[in-house]
Amino acid sequence: MGIHVNIGEAKNRLSELIAASLRGEEVILSKAGKPVARILALDEAKADAKAERAAKWDAYIGSGKGTVDPDFDWFAPTFSDDEIESFTKFPDE
């Protein structure tokens, strides 16, 4: 379906509409409610925008690097058997 925008509104939102076309969205400009033009991103610009988004994603994913201990034993019991037994006993036992 894409984005349909009146030409007058497109003047104020041009940067936003260009960014949308770089993301692969179809942007249609209308005059008096009738489609008259389409904003298309150049292939080189699409490739650059995609590489930039990928770099941002890689930086975001890599931002947690070193925060998790790879040697941590997730399956090791947190409490000893005696501690678990003390939790399950009633005070009068």
Main β-sheet, spatial strand arrangement = 1-2-3
Per the principal axes of the C-alpha atoms, what is the gross shape?
A: elongated
Radius of gyration: 28 Å
Contiguous runs where pLDDT drops below 50 for at least 5 residues? none
Strand content: 15-25%
Description:
The protein is α+β, with helices and mostly antiparallel strands and 93 residues long. 46% of the residues lie in helices and 16% in strands. It contains four helices and three strands, in the order E-H-H-E-E-H-H. It has helices spanning 7-12, 14-22, 43-62, 81-88; strands at residues 3-6, 27-31, 34-39. Strand 2 (27-31) and strand 3 (34-39) form a beta hairpin. The longest helix is centred in the middle third of the chain and has 20 residues, at 43-62. The chain is elongated, with a radius of gyration of 28 Å. The model has no long low-confidence stretch (mean pLDDT 86).
Would you spell out the secondary-structure blueprint of this structure?
Layout: E1 3-6, H1 7-12, H2 14-22, E2 27-31, E3 34-39, H3 43-62, H4 81-88
Throw out a few tags for this protein.
3 strands; alpha+beta; 4 helices; 93 residues; elongated; 46% helix
